[in-house]
Amino acid sequence: MSDWVFVCPTSQLLPGEKAVAWAGDTPIVVVNLDGAFYALEDRCTHDEFELSSGDVDLAEGSITCVLHGARFSLRDGEALCAPAYEPVAKFPVKVEDGLVWTRDDRT
Questions:
Q1: Domain segments of the chain: what residues?
Q2: How far apart (Å, rounded) are the C-alpha atoms in residues 34 and 32?
Q3: CB 6 within 8 A of CB 103
Q4: pLDDT tens, residue by residue, 72-104
Q5: C-alpha distances in angstroms, 40 versus 27, 95, 97?
């Protein structure tokens, strides 16, 4: 397992906002969903485009890939509509002393 990677202070990630961190070669997008923080691999499973460029839907709890419109659940990474059918990798998030951290916990 890799080490925790600093993302940003919680004060810099308001609800609906995104931040990107790198865990080695893995880009991770972290999103504030009404005070809960979620981390997904920053690559659409349909065409490997960066999800961090897309819009966050707070009501649905999703992020949309701007390239072809695939949507993914922020809570579990599941693909919510075509053209994506495979989920995006989800990563752990921890908040300590007002700081957001994530890591690529795949082995």
A1: 5-95
A2: 6
A3: no
A4: 999 999 999 999 999 999 999 999 999 999 999
A5: 9, 16, 22
Q: Which helix (H) or strand (E) holds 91?
A: strand 90-91
Quick count: other Cβ atoms within 10 Å of Cβ 28?
A: 25
Class of domain 5-95: mainly beta
List pLDDT tens digits, range 30-73. Answer: 999 999 999 999 999 999 999 999 999 999 999 999 999 999 99
Q: What is the pLDDT of residue 6?
A: 98
Sheet strands (E) in 26-85: 26-33, 36-41, 56-57, 62-64, 71-73
Q: With contact defined as beta carbons under 8 Å apart, do 67 and 49 qualify?
A: yes
Contacts of 10-17 with CB under 8 Å at 24 or more apart are 10/37, 10/95, 10/98, 10/99, 10/100, 11/98, 13/37, 13/100, 15/58, 16/56, 16/58, 17/56
